[in-house]
Amino acid sequence: MTLADYATFSQYAVASATVVLSLAFLAFVAELGFVRREARVLVGSDGEPLEPEAAEAPETRSDLLQRVGVALTAVAAAVLTVGVVTRGLAAERVPWGNMYEFGAAGVAIALVTFLILSVTSQVQWLGGVVAGFGLLVLGLSWTAYVPAGPLVPALHSYWLVIHVAAVMLAGGLFLLGAAASVLYIVKERAEQRGTVGPILRRLPVIGAMDRLAYRVHAVGFVLWTFGALIAGPIWAQYAWGRYWGWDPKEVWAFITWVVYACYLHARATAGWRGRRAALLALAGFATFLFSYYGVNIFVPGLHSYAK
Q1: GO terms for CC (predicted)?
Q2: Going by C-beta distance under 8 Å and a sequence separation of 6 or more, which residues neighbour residue 36?
Q3: Pick from 101-110, 153-162, 205-214: least confident
């Protein structure tokens, strides 16, 4: 295959992955509809409700749709990974030199992380929100599509590979943490109002969602600290002769770090749990998205080549 063939194949693969992820999102949404329809109390021969362990629980349509959603997410992750790899082959470099490539690779990482956690920690309940966030990021990426090509001279450094790889891993974990935080807020508010329906009862207890969000954010924060505030300045010194210059991208990377640092500090020292912590985590994710998309598009700076 020629470089042009790799580029064309990559474009079709990323587009196909976007379509498959859309189908996965629809499967997760349909699952919720069937959960509501299937909600009922199993009654024994004596007319009393059966305990969950005493009742036979055959696979329902909602269970099937959840498995379909996870399977489609796995297909989307595989196809998207192929698209990212072939994009790198087409450009003859690492495939994260601009916003389009960063978004595609970041979503692939987030989907793979979700699939791993689905096996190890049974987090399939995150599927709909993860797929939705993934589609949002892919949509933003497509708006900034550029043909595969060489990097500008400032990017010819292995520190770029380290810097962006760590940031993408952190972004994937921030996405999962934001998904858990959104669902926490929804269920916690419903519990306060006494309106927890069958859909929300399908979610874990809010404490479990709060702990999951904290754990993935803690790991993501370490990666962000290394990638954005250690590897990034080292690369900036190589590229521009200074470690820090208050470029808009650098400023917003630091703002993101501050918000997530406040989140972790508030949990560890002030005992913040629940809604306040979840809202702070979502504020951090909003700054991350603005750093990824808003700065590149609306704020000119030294990182404008990343469009």
Answers
A1: plasma membrane
A2: 197, 198, 199
A3: 153-162
98 DSSP 8-state letter: S
Handedness of CA 256, 262, 268, 274 (dihedral sign): negative
HEC secondary structure over 178-202: HHHHHHHHHHHHHHHHCCCCHHHHC
Q: What is the pLDDT of residues 150-191, one digit of tens each?
A: 877 766 778 888 988 999 899 989 999 999 999 999 999 999
Single-letter amino acid code for the residue at 55: A
Closest of 287, 298, 220 to residue 251, by C-alpha: 287
Task: Annotate 11-80 with DSSP letters as a single string.
Answer: HHHHHHHHHHHHHHHHHHHHHHHHHHHH----B-TTSSBPPGGGS--PPPHHHHHHHHHHHHHHHHHHHH
In sequence order, the β-bridge partners of residue 43 are 49
What percent of the chain lies above the pLDDT cut of 90?
53
Report which secondary-structure segment, H or E, holds 296. helix 295-298
Token digits for 302?
């030294």
User: In 3-state terms, what secondary structure has residue 175?
Assistant: helix
Alpha-carbon distance of 137 to 288, in angstroms, equals 11
**Token pair of 200, please?**
């929300």
In the numeric block, which tokens belong to residue 2? 């020629």
Residues 40, 46, 50: CA angle, nearest 5 degrees: 40
Taking the C-alpha atoms of residue 62 and residue 82, their distance in angstroms, rounded to an integer, is 30
193 touches 186 (CB < 8 A)? no
Residues 20 and 72 sit within 8 Å (Cβ to Cβ): yes
What percentage of the chain carries pLDDT values higher than 70? 89
State how far Cα 134 lies from the chain centre.
Answer: 6
